[in-house]
Amino acid sequence: MPAxxxxxxxxxxxxxxxxxxxxxxxxxxxxxxxEATVNLATERARIAFDPSQTSLAVLKGxxxxxxxxxxxxxxxxxxxxxxxxxxxxxxxxxxxxxxxSLVIGLAMMALMYLPLGLERPLxxxxxxxxxxxxxxxxxxxxxxxxxxxxxxxxxxxxTLVAVGTxxxxxxxxxxxxxxxxxxxxxxxxxxxxxxxxIIVALVLLGRWLEARAKRQTGAxxxxxxxxxxxxxxxxxxxxxxxxxxxxxRVGDVxxxxxxDRVPVDGTITEGRxxxxxxxxxxxxxxxxxxPGDEVIGATINSSGSFLFTARRVGTDTALAQxxxxxxxxxxxKAPVQRLADRIAEVFVPIVLGVAAxxxxxxxxxxxxxxxxxxxxxxxxxIACPCALGLATPTAIMVGTxxxxxxxxxxxxxxxxEAARAITAIVLDKTGTLTRGRPEVTHLYPxxxxxxxxxxxxxxxxxxxxxxxxxxxxxxxxxxxxxALPAATDFQAAAGAGVIATVDGRRVAVGTALHAGVGQExxxxxxxxxATPLVVSAEGALIGAISVADTxxxxxxxxxxxxxxxxLEVWMLTGDRRRTAExxxxxxxxxxxxxxxxxxxxxxxxxxxxLRESGATVAMVxxxxxxxxxxxxxxxxxxxxxxxxxxxxxxxxxxxxxxLRGIVTAIGLSRRTVGVIRQGLAxxxxxxxxxxxxxxxxxxxxxxxxxxxxxxxxxxAMSSVSVVSNALRLRAFRPPADAAEILHPGLGARxxxxxxxxxxxxxxxxxxGAAVVLANxxxxxxxxSPSVQPMEEMQ
Amino acid sequence: xxxxxxxxxxxxxxxVDTAEASAKGLSxxxxxxxxxxxxxxxxxxxxxxxxxxxxxxxxxxx
Lengths: 794, 62
Hints:
Strand order of the largest sheet of chain A: 14-26-25-24-15-22-23
Oligomer: heterodimer
Distance between the termini of chain B: 30 Å
Structural class of chain B: alpha+beta
Structural class of chain A: alpha+beta
Number of strands of chain B: 4
Shape of chain B: globular
Strand order of the largest sheet of chain B: 1-2
Number of helices of chain B: 3
Largest sheet of chain A: 7 strands, mixed
Helix content of chain B: 25-40%
Strand content of chain A: 15-25%
Largest sheet of chain B: 2 strands, antiparallel
């Protein structure tokens, strides 16, 4: 029998049961299809077919012949690639548009302002054609979005860009196409093609940067998605063979060999093994699994071989869920960007109104209709919020990029804002403040026994064991470069310890009961918060080894720096209060900031209590049991690669698990949000200051007028200042210690203030020079003798 | 209120808004009578073989 392939095709346009029948009829008619069923409710066709006789393309063709559309979307399990592809396409499109627009815009400026000796009647038509292409192709986005907003009776940035560029373009086109008519009407023969084109280019550049920033943050998550193996070993009727992962169905029995990745989620039916789930849970130790235990797709099988029944496949697996959550998250907007949008909702109609007022005012009271029109155009152009569009994406791009360099994945604007606002931070104990894996802390050799001898015997006996405590002992012996003798007749007693023959003696390692001696020593070690391993040989005490979860070396410094950042630092643990407090104090957290004896399911409630006391809380954790707390907190920070849910619930992920990333994340977030606000303030400030000038309010008293070309130059200047300010974030480096946070160096403070002052001064100088000098110069350069220059008309 | 005349889809028996169906091109003229359909499937089924659906012994299947 040929191997059948099964596909699920999403279908669009079905309305009734006869649609279903029709599609089934058409598809079943195709040679090689063994069964086709269509579900009206889920809008899907499930088709079983022989790939050697027909293909997916033929099947889709059959659906189309029936009169319906197959929705082109990701095949199950291929979401990662597809997501990537569509985003890459979108970005390619954006990049093409802004690069072409900018190049055309700059070329136009060169043509218009450089003394190339070209005749205006020659240049203008070329400019018209180029500008039309940009306006219709690259500018289409703004028209579409602006139109959508207009239909709902609102206006946004897109409206302003669309109106501003249209006016600049339309006016230029008019004077180019009907120069004599324009002259009769008294319209100056000024061209603003490059203004329209460059505005389009800059705003699209901003969007492209934004898309790129999102993509970079997603890179680590994409790596996670690639963990799913491409094929699985399925066992059917006693025969084992490989099938593509997409064809694994719920209920299939799958074989996992040593070193394999688990293909999908399921339950072990036969065999046992230790599985490395660190990519999903952050737990560094392999987890022992026996029949009845759950295994998760994408985790790595270490030693044993086992069979398991698939329980969740395709888009239902834990891995696929993460992918979906991350995809959703990336579609969200930075709150500060929403603020910009809200301002725009008010700002845009006001600008349109002001432009209209300017036009009418000068029409009635001004020197000429042309004067009224040019001032109105100036208002629209100067108000064009390129800088607003650039402020947020550039800062987020530089900020998140810089964070990624330091191993910190920031999930976008939302997370940046949250990280800036927090007032308290809760650190989970196990796996966060501590390494989350036991280590040998002390050796207690019995009288007459050396430390080396104790460790040598214990490690040799433990060689065959996979237990975390055994590993700790072995690692310690390895670190001390102790040569281990061979052990034979190894036996493990669950929950008690191991026994093996070493150097001809029966060596027991484990609880005091298991070793047969050393109860007092064991009690003493347990009292100090560690786990005792008593070692005996032939029933005689050799000594004891204390093993405990050790504090991360950087914990202390990080806690100090967090406090320097003005945060209240708390520790959260399920440990008994005394043990917890002892550890907290070693990490530099005061005893009254320890939330001890909290059950895993009580962690979220503990965070809620803190929030209700008025704090804006960040939670740092790693495992699945931390996920609800991470979600409950205003800012969730996941350590390591994090478990699936922990990752989904967190806003920031620290790759590699270095706690110093927390300080980097918070410090960088504050800087980035600061830069965004500066950028927005700068952009709005520019507009608010220059709009009255553009309106011609300074014309009456001082004769100062901002012609549209200068308005465009001022607008470009504001974009440059906003972008260059964002680029300053590249110089960010994490503070070395708490002192640096509390007392930033003089240099840093001078740089910060100095930059803002310098760019402000530069803007004033350029703006002033432009207003005073450039007005007649520009008109000369761009007007041909055949058309009336502007001055003559005023 | 707009005129919301309805008709029965002769293929599947669903009630169809005639204006809506016409707008989507889901109507067919057969021997001087206009028929309206719920979707492309019914429309195409009908136009391929109208007699079958207009026969007295045909029962619309939902």
